[in-house]
Amino acid sequence: MVTNNWRVVIGLTCCLLTAPGATWGAVAFDRSMAPVHLSSAGRARRPLLGTDELDRLRDVLAGTDQTAILAAIQALGDGGAGNAAPLLVEVLAVGAPVPVTVAAIDALKKLRDPTSVEVLALYAGNRGPEIRRHAVEALGIFADGRVVPVLMDRLGDAVVEVRGAAAQALATRGEKTATPRMLALLRRNDAAVAGPLGALAPISLLSEISELRGGIADDNLATTLGELLKRRDVPESGRMEIVKALSGIPGPAATTALIEYVGMLPPQDRRASRSEAQRSVDERAKQP
Amino acid sequence: MIRLVQARCPSVRGGASLVARTAKCAVAFGVVLAVVFAGGCGQADLGRAGSPDAIAAALGRSTVVVGRPMNRAGRPIAYLALGGARGARLMAFDLERSTVLWTVKAPMTGRVVAGASVVTYADGGVLVARDGTTGAERWRSDVPAGEHLVGYAMDGDTVYFVARRGRELRGGEAEIVALDGSSGSVLWRRALGSANVAAPDARGGIVAVPNRSQFVSLMDGRTGEPLGQVLSKQQAVDFVRALPEGFFYGYGSDGFFLMSADTAVGVRSAPGYLHVPFPPFVRSVYHFDMYRPELMDYSAIDRNRVLWRAKVEGTRASFADGTVCVLDFRFFFGFDAASGTLRWAYNNPVVEAIGAAHTGAAIVFATADGDLGALDPRTGQRMYRFHLAGQGEIVTGATFDAEGYAPHGGDIGASASPSLADVLSSIVWDPDRRFFEVQTFAVDQLSRIPGRAVTAALLKMLSQEGMPPAIVNRAARALGERKDPEAVDLFVDAIRVHADYVTSSKAANLDVLARAVGALPATQAAEPLAAHLRLPETEPSTVVEIARALKTMRARETLPALRDYLTMYRADSTYEGDPSALWAVVDALAEMGGVAERELLLYLAEDQRTLPAVRQRAHHALTQTAPGSEGTTDRLGSKAPATDPSGAARAVSPARD
Asked: Which chain A residues are Cβ-neighbours of B568 within 8 angstroms?
């Protein structure tokens, strides 16, 4: 029976995937590293699919009915079963058409199962930009430190959407080591990193960022400064500096940043930077 | 005043007109030959054509020509035509003393020709003579309206010029006139019997004029008496050069003859025939086309031509030192005359040479920005450098009266010359892409030079942004052919470079690198090469080369990367049109792999989701390769001896039993 044959091979392939010394994503990862305990614990608390259901889904996934496959993947991702991830990992491990691949990656993202990190890392290097973007976004949710090199690599991706996804993921993780690369991208006027860099950069880089004015698009600079302004770790003196810098930048992005800053603080907040931002917004409102 | 004389051929009784006879002669080359060999001639009595005796006698009348500058003082002098904001001027510069002798205002339309006491040049329809010592104007000689100066030459203190009236090929007339260099007065004049004539050249009291495309007429320089004519039988003649070693005639790019009794009828098999098998980029102009009056002036031909001198032994001729030099604007190349192989190269920085001459002992040249230089014609080593100080001079042309001159010392005598590899590299890296052909030639030549440094230079070309594809391709081919085991680390370093948008770095031409390391084979490169299989920017065409290289290297440690690639893309419809990358990976896995790889291939061959072309290939590969031929691996990648060739298939095909 062909289905049995596939099961054997899928099993073999999955063994390859998880075996010590095998190299799924070997560029980025070292298999000797400790397992990701947080997600494992989370997985253990989830309900499990029964054996029959697992077999049924595996048969569907190994079939050729793409609609059924996509539905099964959707169900696995949405169901959140603790033993769902290996099925999806299998799908990716043996290769599938692009729509199935994307769906499987998205489903794994929902499941947050650390066993999927390596195969996701592999697909972060896929030739399809859409697949890469989804894989990077999926990797971004894992706290696992092994994800960082992959995201750093994708920060240098040729496709802006992939760079943006990597930048966002790194910023969300608070990965400070990504700051120099992001700053380099902003110097190249890369809109993809403008927001994430503002969310990540230390306040000590404020002057360096402000000096980019004239060299990059105003909107990109304003976006970076606007994100920086929203952060709680920025002292009032820094906020004042940012507000002044934003006040000097024309365009909607700077206006939006100032408005957002004013709006994020309570009306009774009397700090100077808020007043200055309000004053700047008022002045802009008067301009034709 | 110059006056053209109605010419009639004394040998034709009844006075048939020059025009009519010339037209008849031009009807067909066969007719010309028939007339010539029947003892006939052109309409003017310029002597019997193709007669060895006549040529021998004519050349025998030549006085001894000493290999020294033409000017009476014997100083090596460069005459520089200057332009720029200060207007057209003529400068005389003593190369040996590095001093400017004089500079005068001098509009020119024709190049300077040096004599014993005067230099002459054309200024529109006027020949102008200036004192060689002071630059003062000595005389002017007008060409009447309707007549055109074809060209001029000097021998000692006699000026010879050829002028034409009417059409060159039909109905026109021409004559040669000898002027006294000191006064400009006419010494003699003679009709040339055809308007199809070229500029003259002269030495040792003999003046020579190419005419009717295949003839060169010799005349006595003192009287204009015709002495003989050579006939080039197998090629046209568009120049004649008078050098201390003899007269030479030929066609700009086809080669040329030493004039002698043996070449009275010039055939290429003659021992006096000279020609170099240059590489294709060389514009093999041995001398400018003297039929074209516009080339009397300094032109691009002065910047792109062959510089040569000959060694003459009796009627035999060879290129001096077995070397010829090619000037290609900014670049000088020394070629082996017999084989056309490159001996040396010189890259003049930034500015092109506007003129150069082979003095017999040196290649002297001038650049557009006022640099004067000299190269050793045997080695290309720079022997002399002088810059016309700080006046912002623009040099538009140069004539060198420097026969036999070789600089001694100079300001660069002690400096080490760059190696041929360095010079060729500098040519390739030159950002001026006008010299594309020269640059591709330089890459080809560079690739023939062994050594690690050259390999590094070729590798650098692969990854250089903006490098023309043809150069990259040549560098790539060269790298593949070099098989330089001492440079493996350079290949590995180049392979380790990955594309990064942040740093603007690009992976070098990996397909080339893969071929090169595969050909060595360099197993150290296997892992870094395989790493590219997991990168999105690696093109499928490159994957083909990577897979082939890994297979050639038997790099089993890269099997996981190959497996990853195959599984990730085996159902990807973007590979449907061209599955060659997946085929190459299948082949590599089948060739190198063990049980695990054969299991995978079998699975892919049977799975309907695998692209049909890949399924077919996997199936084919499995049947064509013996399982375990390399020693099988178990599922975890450890090696196991291949004991049962069919074991792998059975392990994954229980349903068949």
From this structure: 95, 122-123, 126
